[in-house]
Amino acid sequence: MQDCLFCKIVKREIPADIVFEDDEVLAFNDINPQAPTHILVIPKRHIATLNDIEEPDQALVGKLPRVAARLAAERGFADAGYRVVMNCNDQGGQTVYHVHMHLMGGRRFTWPAG
Length: 114
Ligand code: AMP
Ligand code: ZN
Hints:
The protein is of the alpha+beta class. The protein has one domain (5-105): HIT-like (HIT family, subunit A, 2-Layer Sandwich), CATH 3.30.428. It is built from 3 helices and 5 strands; from the N terminus they run αβββαβαβ. The protein is globular, with a radius of gyration of 14 Å.
C-alpha cells in the first residue's frame, strides 16, 4: 500500500523507533504515548482493518499478542499487567488503516475505557 503510513515504516521510508522485528511482524514505539510504555505491534503485510482479516491471515495476526506479551515480559510488567487495544474503523477510534495492536504498560488502566 503506497500511501499507508505503517507500510512506509516497514519499508524504512519514514523513521520509527523500532523495538522488535521478525520476518512477519514489526513493533515500534507510539509517537504519542498514552502510557510509560506504548508500543504498536503490526503485521508487515498490509491489512487495513480487523474487518479485513481473512482465514489465511489468522496465524500472522495471532503473532501480534504473542509479540506484545514478550515485549511486556522483557520490560518487566507482564505479571503486573498491561493493556492491548485494537481499534477498528472510525467509531472504534482507528486513525491509521493498517492493523495494529497497541501495547500499553507501566501504569494502571481502568475499565470501561472512554
Ligand atoms: P489508532 O488510532 O488505533 O489507529 O492508532 C494509531 C496510532 O499510531 C496512534 O496511537 C498514533 O499516535 C500512532 N502514530 C501515528 N503516526 C505514527 C508514527 N509516525 N510513528 C509511530 N506512531 C504513530
Ligand atoms: Zn499498510
